[in-house]
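Summarise this fold before class:
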Amino acid sequence: MSRDPLPTARQTAWKTLNECDVLSHDTAEVLNRHLARSDRPAQATDLVFGVIRHRITLDRILTRCARIDTKRVKPTQWNLLRLGAYELVFAPQTADYAIINEAVEIANRTRSKKTGGFINAVLRKVQRAIESRQAPLQGAAKSRAIPQNAETGCLFKDDLLPDPAQDVVSYLNTAYSVPQRLVHEWVAAYGRRQTEDLCLASNRAPSVMAWPNTLCVTAEELAARLHDETVACEQVADCVRIHSAGRMNRYRAYLEGLFYVQDTTAASAVKLLDPQPDWTVLDLCAAPGGKSMALAMLTGDAGVILSTDANSKRLSRIRENIKRLRLQSVEVVPYNHIDKVVSKEKKLDAILLDVPCSNTGVLARRVEARWRWNPEMVTKLQQMQQDLLKQAAAMARPGTRILYSTCSIQPDENTRQVQAFLAANKQYKLLDEKLTLPALQTKDAPDHDGGYAAVLEKK
C-alpha cells in the first residue's frame, strides 16, 4: 500500500504562516507541529523564519513591483506571495521557475484557477523587476539592492528602497525589516554604520550551537557522535555547530543527553559569573533551563543549583532537561516556595537573574520579537527588571553575587538599570559587565546573538 507523499517544504511553510499571528503565537511551536511531516524540515524552517523576519521588505517588493492593493488580497494569498518573493530575493540558488511553479500549484489546490493565475502574474512581475538575483553590494546603488549578507544582495532594475543619504532610518527599516523606532534608538546608541551591521546580523539564519554534556562527553567526541548520525556539524572551540536546522529530538545524541543547545553569548554570560564547584546558586528566572544547565557543567555538577521561574508551566521544561542530561546538582523549586527553600541553605554564593527583556539582541532567533517591540512594552519590562533586582537583593547575603543578564542590547534595559540599582543600593559593587552585539560569522568566530551581563556583589 503506497503512502501519500510528504508535504513539501513550501507547503509546510505556507500552512505554518497561515496559522501564525506574530503578535500572539510562538512561530517555532506552530512550525514544529508540521515539521515531522515535511519532506525538507530545514528548508521549511528557513522559509517560515525568513518570511517573518523580512515582512516589511517583502511587502515593499510586492506592492512596488506588482502595484497591488494589499487590502484586496486574502491573507492566505498574501502569505503565498511573500513566500515566493522571499525565495526570489533571498534564495538565489533556487531556480526561479521552481519557486513560481510550486507557488502556482499550491494556489491551484485551493480549487481556484483564478487564484493560481493571480499568484503567477504577481510573482512574474517581481521576477522581471530583478536585474540580478545575486550581485556584489560593493558599487551597487543602495536604493536598488536588497542585502542578502555582508557581500551580496538582490539587485533590482529600478529604485526600490529609500535613499539612505536622505533618510537612513527609513532605508534601514525598509531594507532590513526592523521597526523604525527601534532603528532610531540603535542609531542614537551605536551610530549609523554599526546600526546597519546590527540590522544585518538580526536577519541572519542563526547557528545552532550544541554544548557537550561535559559530565560524559567532550566536544570532539560529541562532534564524532553527531557525524555518526550523518548530522552536518563542526567543532568550534569547546562546542559544536550544527549546520542542519530542525527538531533536536530527532538526534539520538540529544535524546541520550549528550548535549544542550545555547548561543555562545548566553553561554558567556554564565562564565562571567565564574561559578565554583562548591557554590550554592539560585537561578531565579530559569525556564527553560539553559543557564542552569550551563551552571551545572561549569561546576562539575557538584554544587547546589536551585532553579525556579514565575511561570510554573515552564518548570516542566527544566525538569525534562535535568532528566535528559542526568544532572544531580539542579533542583527545581516552585516559585512560591523559593524564599523558604533559600533560607534553609547555609550559604548563597550567587543569584542568576536572566530577566524578561525586549529580545532585541536575538531578533534573528526569536522571529516575532521585532513585531512585538514598542517603547510602551519596554517600559513595562523595565519595571519588571527593577522588581526582580529588588527581589534578588532582598535574598542576597554578604558576599553573594548577582548576575544580571538580558538578551537585549538596549541601554535602558542594561547599563542604565544596573547603574540605577547601584545608585540606590550602596552596599553593592559592580565586579564586571559585558555587552555583546549580534554579529555575523567571521573567520575567527561563529555568528552569535546579542546580550548583556553584569556581575554585582554584596559587600
